[in-house]
Automatic annotation (TrEMBL):
Database matches in InterPro entries: Bact_exopeptidase_dim_dom (IPR036264), Peptidase_M20A (IPR050072)
Designated name of the protein: Acetylornithine deacetylase/succinyl-diaminopimelate desuccinylase-like protein
UniProt superkingdom: Bacteria
Species this chain originates from: Nocardioides simplex (Arthrobacter simplex)
Keywords on record: Hydrolase, Metal-binding
Length: 437
């Protein structure tokens, strides 16, 4: 296999870098934010993104999963004989941007950054998903457009995948969606199953460092039994409040999550656990206790932990709680499992991504450790694609909002987006210049 000419690769990267336009990046972010795309309803946005790519030199199409959910797929075809690279980002938002659905769980009201309407504040764009995922998707689009504008004749193809259903959620069936499997990488999996394939994949998700592994997740449903009873009879009849019993289990699990994370922290990951939701009783009828309280757990997993072992470990934790509290009737079941994954650190996609990072940063690469966030990188790797993850750094003190979890998702620094775009161009051109075989 003949190695690519380093000077030719360098010339190609420089030519594509010259075609990157900060104003175009801002235009892409604003356009992506202004079209709502909660998980399961990305069709309109996928159509818009495919149209934008096609209009800017990247032939693209909309790939429908059903009548409301879709991916956008683009391809800059290579001249032949080279390796192909997929630049990927999801396009759905974790929350909806509708006060009727998000409030009060997101807070007492929707802030400006929690709504699907973009606002430009100098170097920043604010709006639902403006950074994660839409700022990252904009960088993927801008990178492909810059390569197209430079007119590069790369041996391998550069593909663009903008995926539906990338957020860690199931479908909002109660809101009229037809499928539960609308999130958790549904679009990414469909993309690959329907013929979009490459030798390497780069996923754009938050964190200004190259990551080659990340956590998986196990979701569990836990039920605690009680007695259907009445406040007027509490002192006269047997009384077992399922909600009170569940609170005991929740608090003990919260303590166990800490020790679980300590046991499984290694490499780039520090898998965490949370109790995420709880349901019980009739809000209209506060006079009675329900016979059941149900709550939900997200337990992140190391790439080195088989999911069967994680299930057993969680089951043992529940058994220990039962032993300490024999008065409680507790049962559990698995609701969802996605393994953590890893790509070898010496894989070409990882070494190319690290080399790009070091050139842009001007220093040796420093990975971010203690990660507990999962992305569609797990889907890409499970399907057999060596994958590297790269993204933007957190917003700084000059952002229009102080950093908290929602601001980190919903405020993008265009300077960071431009740096990410440069990184994606560098990595894509490097990999698409490699001879196949």
């Amino acid at each position: 296999m003949t190695s690519p000419d380093p000077s030719a690769v360098r010339t190609a990267i420089a030519a594509a870098w010259k075609a990157i336009d900060r104003d175009r990046l801002a235009e892409l972010v604003v356009g992506l934010v202004d079209i709502p795309s909660p998980t399961g309803e990305e069709g309109e946005l996928a159509q818009w993104a495919a149209g934008q790519l096609s209009a800017h030199g990247v032939p693209a199409r909309t790939q429908w999963l059903d009548d409301r959910q879709a991916n956008a797929v683009g391809e800059l075809a290579g001249t032949g004989g080279g390796e192909d690279v997929l630049l990927y980002a999801p396009i759905d938002t974790l929350t909806v941007g509708d006060a009727d659905e998000d409030v009060p769980w997101i807070g007492p009201a929707l802030r400006a950054d929690m709504q699907p309407r973009a606002q430009v504040h100098g170097d920043h764009v604010l709006g639902l998903g403006a950074s994660n995922p839409k700022g990252h998707a904009a960088s993927v689009m801008a990178a492909a457009e810059a390569i197209a504008a430079a007119g590069l004749d790369l041996p391998g193809s550069v593909l663009v995948g903008l995926g539906a259903g990338g957020m860690p959620t199931n479908g909002r069936i109660e809101r009229g969606l037809s499928r539960h499997n609308a999130g958790q990488g549904a679009g990414c999996s469909f993309l690959l199953e329907q013929g979009v394939w490459a030798d390497h994949a780069v996923i754009a998700k938050p964190g200004w460092a190259v990551a080659w592994e990340e956590v998986g997740l196990c979701w569990f449903e836990v039920e605690v039994e009680g007695s259907f009873s009445y406040v007027g009879s509490r002192h006269r009849m047997p009384y077992r409040n399922a909600i009170a019993g569940a609170s005991v289990v929740v608090l003990e699990l919260e303590e166990w999550f800490t020790t679980y994370a300590e046991r499984h922290t290694d490499g780039l990951v520090a898998p965490q656990g949370i109790v995420s939701a709880i349901e019980s009783g009739w809000p209209r009828m506060s006079s009675v206790t329900p016979a059941l309280c149900r709550f939900y757990v997200d337990l992140r997993t190391s790439p080195r932990s088989p999911l069967a072992d994680v299930r057993r470990e969680f089951g043992a934790a529940v058994d220990a709680i039962r032993a300490r509290h024999p008065e409680l009737a507790v049962r559990w079941r698995s609701r969802l499992t996605i393994p953590g994954t890893a790509t070898p650190v010496d894989a070409p996609v990882v070494t190319a991504a690290i080399a790009a990072w070091e050139e842009l940063a001007g220093e040796p690469h420093r990975p971010i450790v203690a990660n507990s966030g999962a992305t569609d990188a797990n889907i890409l790797r499970q399907k057999g694609l060596p994958t590297a993850r790269i993204g933007m750094d957190r917003i700084g003190p000059d952002a229009p909002l102080p950093l908290d979890f929602p601001a980190g998702m919903n405020v993008v620094d265009l300077r960071e987006a431009e740096r990410l775009t440069r990184h994606l161009v560098h990595t894509a051109v490097t990999l698409a210049s490699r001879p196949a075989g």
